[in-house]
Each structure stands twice: as C-alpha cells, then as structure tokens.
Specification:
Strand content: under 5%
Order of helices and strands: HHHHHHHHHHH
Distance between the termini: 29 Å
Largest sheet: none
Oligomer: single chain
Number of helices: 11
Shape: globular
Structural class: mainly alpha
Length: 249
Amino acid sequence: MWPWIIEFQKEIYLAFAEHIKAFAAGTGWTEFLTFLPMGIAFGSVHAMTPGHSKTVLATYLAGASSGMWRALLVSLSLSFTHVTMSVLIVLLSLPLVSVMFGGNGPGSSPILENLSRGLLGIIGIWMLWRAFATHGHTHHEREGLIVGVMAGLIPCPLTLFVMTFSITRGVPGAGIMFAVVMMIGVAITLSVVALSTVFFRDRMMRLFTERPRLIANVSKVVEVLAGLVLVALAVREIALRWLRKCGIM
C-alpha cells in the first residue's frame, strides 16, 4: 500500500507544480481552480504516511475522557497548526527557513520538532501525575486544543515545498490556496483517526459498565500508559536527533 501512496503523492505534487508554473505564466485562475480540489485528496493520502502525529493523537485520546466533539477539535487544531506553520515560515521570511531547518535539508525542522516533542513530553508527565492523583479529574476542552497545537508545531514539508515554489514563481496566492485545500485533506484523515480512537475506547469502557471500580482502574491504567508513551516518544525523538547531530548515528 505504501508504494501506491507514495506514487500518488508524487503524481499530485508534480501536477500541482505544473499548474502553478502554468498559472505563473499567465494561464489564469480557471484551470488552476479546476484542479485545486485534488489538493484535498492529496492532503488525505499524505496524512496516511508516517508522521503527522497520528500516534500522539491516538495515544492522547485513548487516555483522555474526551468525547467525539472534543476529539474532532483536537484533530482539527493539529491539522491547522501543522499546515499553517509551513505557510508562516515561508511567508515571513525565506531566510528564516534556513535557520529553523538548521541546515539539515528540506523536510527537517529540528528546532520546531524538538519544541513539539518536548512540550508533548510535558503533557505526558502531566497525564502521569494526574492519573496518580487521589482526587477525580476531568479533561478540559482547552487541554485537547493545546495538545493539538503542540503536536502540529512540526511544519508540513510538502506544504513548505509548494509554498516556496509558488513564491519563487511569483504567485504566493496559489501556494496559499493549495495549503488550504491540503489542510482540509489532512484534517479529514486525522479526524478519522481521532473519532475511531474515541469510538473504540468508549466501546471498551462499555464492556465494564457493570463494574464501576474496574472502569476507574482501567481508565487510570490507560491514562498512565498514554502518559508513558508520550514521554517515551518525546525522549526518543529528541535523543535520536541529538545523536545524529553528534554524528553517532
């Protein structure tokens, strides 16, 4: 399946590049706008590939008590931040890209990646502390939005490519429109992940409806595991990046 996804992404990306070049050459909006909806399919398929914080999203929601609506908000905030970061980086200053990317090449943003993973690690520690607290607790909607923003701090490399390509061709508006439709596609995929996680989590909890104490214990265990996974992911990503920087890996 992965070869098909990669090939599909390549075809759509090259097609968008051709349409942006044609638009820059003066073909007008009609042809470009006709092809633009393909960006939704592009974003949906692109979000299926490794990355995009799907594991972080599913882990957090599995340990949280969020309902479908809040899970949807988390996925939407993640998608919005993920794509918007790319647009802002390119629009604010192309030289900023070289600083934020640390000279590691396209698609890599060590500063933002370390910041994102570090903040998610803090969320993981917070979930562990809360799970072991003796009093009851609730998961506020604001917390979910914060997690979505933190997980989405890593910019989308493909959006960076398209935005940079559009600006160098003198048509930044075309790149922004591509980013918007691609964000819709990414949001669709991440929303499916979020809603599926909540659906199966709730179904599992309903199996224990006749045993309230067991539900509380299972909920606490799940939250502890979710917190541990978030901390482990943060430590692993930061450690691997440090080892690569030191030339050890």
